[in-house]
Amino acid sequence: MDQNIAPTDSVTARIHALCEGEDDAIAKMATIACELYHAYDRFDWVGFYRVTAPGLLKIGPYQGGHGCLVIPFARGVCGAAAREGRTQLVPDVDAFPGHIACSSSTRSEIVVPVFDAEGRLIAVLDIDSNRPDAFTKDDQAMLERLMADIFARPAA
Length: 156
Description:
about 35% helix; alpha+beta; about 25% strand; disordered N terminus; Beta-Lactamase; 4 helices; globular
C-alpha cells in the first residue's frame, strides 16, 4: 500500500470517523499517529511533540522507535515548525541546519504545526522516513488539512 499518495481519502476518512466527537487532544494524537504509521510504508516514525512550556516541545503519542523526549523551539525541524508556525518539508535531513538525529536512519522529514480552535500552537506532527525525498507537496496539503480538521475546529 506504499504509494506516494497511498489511500489518502480512505485514511483521512477513517481518522475523521475515529476522532469524531472526541475532545481529548492526546486521544486524537494517538489515533492519528497509529493510523498514519500503519497506512504508509514510507512513514517510518509518526508522532506528536506537544507544547508543554513556552519554547518547549515534549514527546507525545507516537508510533515507531523511541523519539527524542524534549525539543526546544530553537533546535531541529520540529523546533523550526513550532517557532515559525509553518510546515517544514525536508527532503534531506542532512542538509537541514541543526537537524536533531533522534534516529540515525532518518533521511527525510515533514513536520506540521498543530493549532487548536483558538489558533494556539498545541503540538507539531512529525513524520520521518528512512527514504530520501519521501514527502510531497500533496502530503503536506493532506496533513495540514487533516490537522486543521481534527484540532482547529471547535468540538461539536
